[in-house]
Specification:
Blueprint lengths: L2 H18 L9 H31 L6 H29 L7 H28 L5 H29 L2 H8 L17
Length: 191
């Protein structure tokens, strides 16, 4: 009943790992850029971990028969994502524009994308909370609809986040412990 939702959440996880997993070299304005990346990355790892844990929690109830338990788990997971995406947006906003060409635009786009994700997860939480747990068919249909919307969210926001981590910014972020991909890799999922 919850498989489509779990699959969509995996897409969201991939987006987060793409944001945090970069690689690269140095450049002449290394210090300023490294300082900027440190500001963002120090705040990023705990928030990404919260989102990944929320996704795992939601995925863990995919075979659960008790609709109320599924609804409660989904609702709690969505709320964690609301708060974590908001905190990520604030971290990027508070760090200021990265000191690179078009840094202000990249920052603005990333903050908007993260805030949009926070708002979208708040809407998903409301929809999930409103599902009728007494009717398993309607509940399942509602979950499938929510899962489809999560998949759309991942695609819509990934472009601005990719732009934030392009070039020298991505290289600087890759050096920060809070943005190193291997420190945030999720456990393999059972599909």
């Amino acid at each position: 009943m919850n498989k489509k939702l779990a699959a969509a959440l995996s897409g969201g996880t991939a987006l987060l790992l793409a944001l945090t997993g970069c690689s690269g070299d140095d450049d002449q304005s290394k210090k300023k850029l490294d300082d900027w990346a440190k500001k963002v990355c120090d705040q990023m790892q705990p928030q990404v971990k919260k989102i990944l844990d929320a996704n795992k929690s939601i995925a863990s109830v995919q075979t659960e028969e008790d609709s109320k338990k599924v609804q409660q788990t989904d609702s709690a997971g969505f709320q964690v994502s609301v708060d974590a995406y908001k905190a990520l947006a604030n971290a990027v906003q508070d760090a200021g524009a990265p000191p690179v060409k078009d840094g202000e635009t990249s920052q603005k786009n990333a903050v908007k994308a993260l805030n949009d994700l926070s708002t979208a997860y708040a809407n998903l939480k409301k929809r999930s909370d409103a599902l009728d747990t007494g009717d398993k068919n309607k509940f399942g249909e509602g979950l499938r609809s929510i899962g489809g919307d999560i998949a759309k969210l991942s695609g819509q926001s990934s472009e601005a986040l990719k732009k934030l981590q392009e070039g020298d910014v991505g290289k600087a972020m890759a050096k920060q412990p809070g943005c190193q991909k291997n420190s945030l890799s999720p456990a393999p999922s059972k599909s």
